[in-house]
Amino acid sequence: MDFSNIIPALPSMMEGLWVTVKLTIMAVIGGVAIGTLLALARLSKNSLLANLAGFYVNYFRSIPLLLVITWFYFMVPFIIGWVTGTNRPIGALTSCLIAFMLFEAAYFCEIVRAGIQSIGKGQINAAYALGMNYRQAMQLIILPQAFRKMMPLLLQQSIILFQDTSLVYAVGIMDFLNTARSRGDIIGQPHEFLLFAGLIYFLISFSASTLVTRLNKRLSV
Amino acid sequence: QELSGTLKKIKDSGVIVLGHRDSSIPFSYLANDSKPIGYSADLSSKIVDAIKQELKMPNLTVRYNLVTSQTRIPLVQNGTVDFECGSTTNNLERQKQVAFSLGIFEIGTRLLVRKDSPYKDFADLAGKNVVTTAGTTSERILKKMNDEKKMGMNIISAKDHGESFLMLESGRAVAFMMDDALLAGEMAKAKKPSDWAIVGKSQSNEIYGCMMRKDDPAFKKVVDNALASTFKSGEVNTIYKRWFLSPVPPKGLNLNFPMSDELKQLIANPTDKSAEQM
Amino acid sequence: MISIKNISKWYGDFQVLTDCSADIKKGEVVVVCGPSGSGKSTLIKCVNALEPFQKGEIIFDGTSVGLPDTDLPKLRSKIGMVFQNFELFPHLSIIENLMLAQQRVLNRSSDEARSKGMQLLDRVGLSAQAAKFPGQLSGGQQQRVAIARALAMNPIAMLFDEPTSALDPEMVNEVLDVMTELAREGMTMMCVTHEMGFARRVANRVIFMDGGRIEEDCSKEDFFGTPRGERAQHFLSKILQH
Amino acid sequence: MISIKNISKWYGDFQVLTDCSADIKKGEVVVVCGPSGSGKSTLIKCVNALEPFQKGEIIFDGTSVGLPDTDLPKLRSKIGMVFQNFELFPHLSIIENLMLAQQRVLNRSSDEARSKGMQLLDRVGLSAQAAKFPGQLSGGQQQRVAIARALAMNPIAMLFDEPTSALDPEMVNEVLDVMTELAREGMTMMCVTHEMGFARRVANRVIFMDGGRIEEDCSKEDFFGTPRGERAQHFLSKILQH
Amino acid sequence: MNYHWDWGVFFKPTGIGTEIYLHWFITGLGWTIALALCSWIIALSLGTIIGVARTLPGHFLSRIAAAYVALFRNVPLLVQLFIWYFMVPDYLPENLQTWFKQDLNPATSAFISTIICLGLFTAARVAEQVRTGIQALSKGQTNAALALGLSLPQLYKDVLLPQAFRIIIPPMTSEFLNVFKNSSVASLIGLMELLAQTKQTAEFTANLFEAFTLATLIYFTLNMSLMLLMRWVEKRVQVPGLIALGGK
Ligand SMILES: Nc1ncnc2c1ncn2[C@@H]1O[C@H](COP(=O)(O)OP(=O)(O)OP(=O)(O)O)[C@@H](O)[C@H]1O
Ligand SMILES: Nc1ncnc2c1ncn2[C@@H]1O[C@H](COP(=O)(O)OP(=O)(O)OP(=O)(O)O)[C@@H](O)[C@H]1O
Ligand SMILES: N[C@@H](CCC(=O)O)C(=O)O
Ligand SMILES: [Mg+2]
Ligand SMILES: [Mg+2]
Asked: Do E2 and B77 make contact, defined as CB atoms within 8 angstroms?
């Protein structure tokens, strides 16, 4: 094996890594935002809303991410075209981003829901008793506490998401893995590039999960 | 006059999205950075220039979107890419879904095998592992042949040409069926190009075209005109020479693939018909 | 000021409150007692609509609590409430606990809320702890903060739900002292508590509940003096043993 | 039969046992007592090598416990042990709890193990519960099953680690009765317990531990009668208060 | 947009032999189930061993197990799949390599690579669950079993694992379902499982909405039925009188 050819390819690999990181961060932000709304819907007294959110979660949790990515890749531009009636260009990355956000939202929803439920009923009663409305009670009292409690789980899920972004390979987005593969292929050293990509993924997610474990220990004392 | 369809979309958004390939050597592929190069890539820049002129937008942003044999048609249809110039065959079935520009190349579908292997034609492949790329015309031809002639081949459908060649090179398949020009491109990339040979009787003659959305005559006209003038001015010969008769990245190997009479014919009398229609 | 009229409430099939009525006038201190599960907490939570009820009516300061168009946040901000488990907001410092609702609900400025907050912390003897977090305080201190937090809203009545029962015995008095003082100053109060000493000292009336019903509602003298219903007697004898 | 010689044991830096020695002869019943954390459980677990020790030697029935080439499963199967929290196997029925080790360790046939098991259940008065699961029995019943389970291995000595301290008071006696009977029949026993009534009734000797040391090791008469070390006195006075 | 809806597309001939498109889906589902079950067998057995190894305190096996878990959990599944499929076979001994690459049907060799990959990948997750389950049991159970003379293997087999597995049925259920979903990565190395068949149908017919809708429905139904199955299993193995085993 000869890893020397990786060095000239590093700049374009960095570009790929940037795509991966961008995708991860935006999907986490979007996923948590949508997931939180879903969690609130699942916990709401309105049973229609709760059931709809429940169905959403069950639905996305029972189909493979790869299928969602592929499907959305073809579907999102169509849908957006139909809905808005215009022909604004929807990049492949945008399609994937939407797929990730909607898919991960189902997983984040369950984490957020557990987080909210772990905050006692007494806290929301106290907030109401002080005259706050539902929105204020959630925003000022329940969610800040819930998010603190579920931080480790959210981060863990984000690390999984980071790894899962490599599935955009299926639709040919030049993320880190796909760049490495394509570079390795054109140079005729696919094995070296593959191992290198694996190593980088490992280093990033291993150090991230080590950090999360530490954070977890710190929070639990 | 009022703009419509793709031209309007490009004008409104200030962006044009080109579909490209990552391992269609030497038509459209990635060598050193994330910008595609190749024969078709050069032709698409001609087209982009023409669009810039047509819309009077010299600073039009060009975005590239990687497509595969399997994804290219839906992506043209759903608007993710505005047009695709790679190694796509114009045929009747595809014409139902997308529109094609004037033909830009002509190929035959053949086999790539190890030079010292006993496999010289399709008939030798009965019971063997044969690779081709998913979503290509070759895949359909091969599957049909296998079924009709009861050849008992194991057909591997790889994701792109690079992967197909990897299958061949690593010994998982004894032959790789694909367009002859693309096979020559894969050879140029191989560790030792002289180990490989393109063999077999061509199973179909196909004309490549650039794909765009159907029912958009204004856009098609700009694309066709751009190609036609490149053909007429003879500039296409320079481009051809650059990619087929000179060393090309990444290895700096020369394909030595002289222009066929059919292609000369096509350039002399440009048409957007498929090979079946001629 | 608080008028509870024939309230009944069910959890599913299970009736928690049956036809409860009581009247609490301005400045009155009413102690509610009764065995565990008798519905005391539920009743008191109905007063500021933390629990909905299915039958009857509660009028607080002229407003009917149960109607759909009642402005609940506004109503609740006029009623202070103190819980068994304090329910301070653990992610906010003590002073922020006192300021939050003042700013968000009463739209007071930050300065105004802070000075009001400090003044009340001073009153419960905790101004030195303003910057700490609830987790760093003892139970008794937390409960005093909770009372101060309720007072910061300038409530016209206070509800207490067993404010001392989660406290270690040595801290009970520091909280009862604050409550006693509050009663002396003329606050209208409804207290669920088993602290009979407190009841004797400051209550005007005692309500005894059992099985979701108000079994006795009489002046403190009557409750501790003359004979009453059998269950109340039994309950009292058990409570006073300690 | 059990001879403990100068045992010392550390958890990391922390010394739990310091130079403990004791001798228990065949048929003797020895009660071990002492304040919480004094090392009683640790000592008794050293006897059947559930805890390793770093210094000293324990000889059980002629075999040295701590040597690396000792066949521990065989040794342990000769020593019955009963735990504070019963530690029945919750996923096995009562009779399966009794049969498991007989079959796996002593290689008894299923029939043999079952009949031995039923006989012992009968003895502790629980044959009617054979098919139930541990979770369906009361604490006292579970502990009697645990004793029966230990006896099923035909042990030549029994170790008890506070067998009654996790039980509700009304169940303590049913377990002590079984233990008393066992002692009467001549079983060699080492019991960690604070049940001084039991000690008085059946013990031959009492060992008092404190801070990881054996502070007293004397006959029951001496322990309860004549004056002893200050700490043992203090401990005894606290225990006997109840 | 020029899109031609046609829900009857699944009953149209594919143009290859006498097949209709629905056949493709059925074949695909067959592959998906076979992949998932085989991978699960590997994952469950290996995962249990590794999980047990992680609970052996201070033992060198425990370190190896921890390293295994860290490695397999921190490299994306797809990278692992490529390594098993494109790379590892090239390092096999000559004759094994020829057998694997040429004599085996390509579908079979892709199948083998995938179940090894997915099995080892899932084993790391199963190991974590098994470890959690064992550690949730009180130390007293171990002591009691040892005191009765059980050996270490007997302790795990007869006492700890039966209890641990009952505790971890819910998280194991979701790992089991994950294997089905994750098996779709096999489509990326050309194995014609459900997702690959869906993509191919979409490409052949140009009716991608219909194709993907059907695939989604199949996955959804599969998932729900497996979930019900696992609920039933959970009930079946429930121990009477033991409500809060997991709560210890
Ligand atoms: N959310 C609920 N769902 C169903 N039943 C409930 C609910 N909350 C309370 N209950 C029941 O309502 C009855 C009254 O409860 P409540 O808390 O008002 O009693 P309490 O008098 O305050 O008792 P304690 O002295 O224990 O606080 C109890 O039997 C309780 O079990
Ligand atoms: N695994 C362990 N690691 C570190 N220290 C331990 C461990 N187990 C016990 N100890 C310490 O060893 C000392 C003796 O414990 P041991 O359980 O033997 O006491 P004990 O006399 O049985 O007390 P109790 O009456 O509470 O059961 C205690 O201080 C305890 O904290
Ligand atoms: N020309 C063939 C194969 C080439 C390709 O897909 O790149 C086709 O269009 O199907
Ligand atoms: Mg209450
Ligand atoms: Mg102990």
From this structure: yes
Size of the A and B interface in Cβ pairs below 8 Å: 81
Which residue type sits at C203?
A: A
Judged against a pLDDT cut of 60, whether residue D102 lies above it is answered with yes
Question: Mean pLDDT across the stretch A182-192?
Answer: 88
Query: Reading across the β-sheet that carries C55-60, which strands appear in turn?
Result: C14-24, C2-11, C55-60, C63-64
- H-run or E-run covering B138: helix B137-148
Paired tokens of A216: 């977890």
Residues contacting residue B260 through CB under 8 Å, at least 6 positions apart: B106
Q: pLDDT averaged over chain C?
A: 91
How big is chain C by its Cα radius of gyration, in Å? Answer: 18
Six token digits for residue C182: 């509050």
User: In which residue are the tokens 């114009």 written?
Assistant: B90
Q: How far apart are CA E50 and CA E69, in angstroms?
A: 8
- Does the pLDDT value for residue E9 go beyond 70? yes
Residues A144, A136: contact at Cβ < 8 Å? no
Q: Residue range B167-175: average pLDDT?
A: 91
Task: Note the ipTM here.
Answer: 0.86
**A86 band by pLDDT with thresholds 50, 70 and 90:** low
- Distance, in Å, from the CA atom of A207 to the CA atom of B4, rounded to the nearest integer, reads 52
- Give the number of beta-carbon pairs within 8 Å between A and C: 66
Give D228's Cβ-side CA count (13 Å radius). Answer: 22
Q: Whose CA is nearest to atom 12 of ligand 1?
A: C16
CA dihedral A83, A88, A89, A95 (to 10 degrees): -30
Q: How far apart are the CA of C39 and the centre of ligand 1, in A?
A: 6
Instruction: Give the C-alpha separation, D190 to A98, whole Å.
Output: 69
In angstroms, the CA E78 to CA A61 distance is: 19
Q: Which residues pair with C33 in a beta bridge?
A: C208
Return d(Cα B47, Cα C218) in angstroms, integer: 95
Provide the angle, in degrees to the nearest 10, between the axes of the packed helices D169-184 and D139-151.
20
- Ion ligand 5 residues within 5 Å by Cβ: D 41
Question: Distance, CA C188 to ligand 1 centroid (Å)?
Answer: 25
Note if the bond before B250 is cis, omega within 30 degrees. Answer: yes
Beta bridge partners of D4: D22, D58
Mutate to test the interface with D, among E137, E138, E139, E148 (most CBs of D within 10 A): E148
Domains and CATH numbers, chain E: 7-247 (1.10.3720.10)
Global confidence as pTM: 0.88
Q: Which of B212-216, E206-210, E243-247 has the lowest mean pLDDT?
A: E243-247
**Number of residues that make up chain D:** 242
Residue B70: which of E102, E109, E199 has the nearest Cβ?
Answer: E199
Mutate which: A119, A121, A130, A220, vs C, most C CBs within 10 A = A130
Closest ligand to residue C39's CA: 1
Find residue D35's DSSP bridge partners.
none
Query: From the CA of E151, how far away is ligand 2's center (Å)?
Result: 25
